[in-house]
Amino acid sequence: MRGLRWIGALLAVPLMAACTEPWRAPGALMPSASPATSVPVPPTVVPGQAVAVEAVSACSVIGLLVTAERGEAAMGYREMVLTVRNCGSKPYVVKGRPEIVVLDEDGRPLRIDVVPSVHWTAAPGEKVLKPGTSAISVLSWRNTVTDVGGGSDTGESLAVAVSAGRTRQFVSLPSSLDLGNTRRLEAGAWF
To answer: How far apart are CA 163 and CA 126, in angstroms?
Structure first.
């Protein structure tokens, strides 16, 4: 047994010594201490990432563009972000919450109560959007069905005024508003 230990030790020493020099294939380049030049990396697309589609004509008419981003959903509670961007050349004031009409698949208004958000409770105020800046409002709702035989409401698009009494803008949605039959949508103040 003692002889096997000596043989193992004698074999291990040359093997360990061989590992002190880095292995190099014939003709391979050696590492350099000089910095490498940067190589442009193409942009990557993350699977499932929402891509906003902007209607240029809406921006040219009123100087603002409202878009909706794909929302989050968990256990019947849903959220979707509305973004208003000043794409004009002058500052624009948004006040309070967006004024929203939910539209069905044929573009007809649904009877939905749009109420102040209980989840996004920033106090409504004024926000000045300089050209190129934006503000967001979070919409939230529950997909609750309380009347099994009564059907449910599904919004496919929105008509949004950034402040009460302003011009409405058609907003395509990245996914449906599955409102159940509670007929309730919450809107947070612009921030």
So the answer is: 10
